[in-house]
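Batch manifest, entry 17 of 40.
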Amino acid sequence: MSDPIIRDVCSVQLPDRHGLFTNYVLVAFGRGHAQLLSRGLPVHTIALSSPCNALCAGVFLGSSTGDKMRLPPSSRNLQALLGDEAGRLFVLDGFELVPYAQLDYPITRVFSLPLRTLGSYDGPDLVICATRSDTIYILHQKKIVATH
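Output type: structure tokens
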């Protein structure tokens, strides 16, 4: 799959098939797919129906959302968030893509903000999402909690 347009990159730790946490580079391409690279070589391709514009690492799924969570909530950079041209957000948990949210505009940037930076809170990260509009969305546990 050769695609000259790289939209975003991020590093993420995911469990491999033996359960060992491995560092990967996640690369978002402009033609509706992303790839996980290990030691510079592609090891997994993620197909999306729309171009992937934005990536970030963090912990986004928690047991209180009803999602199966593979990772302890205190872990960092163990899931990845993908934002696409259709306004959809997905979480890459292990090697599985889980729907997270649908926004009204194409996603241009995503950032994670750990709850513990706001005080003595624990749980999945907040998501700050920029779109191709004048609105910034803040999401937590698959729900929009604020816009600006």
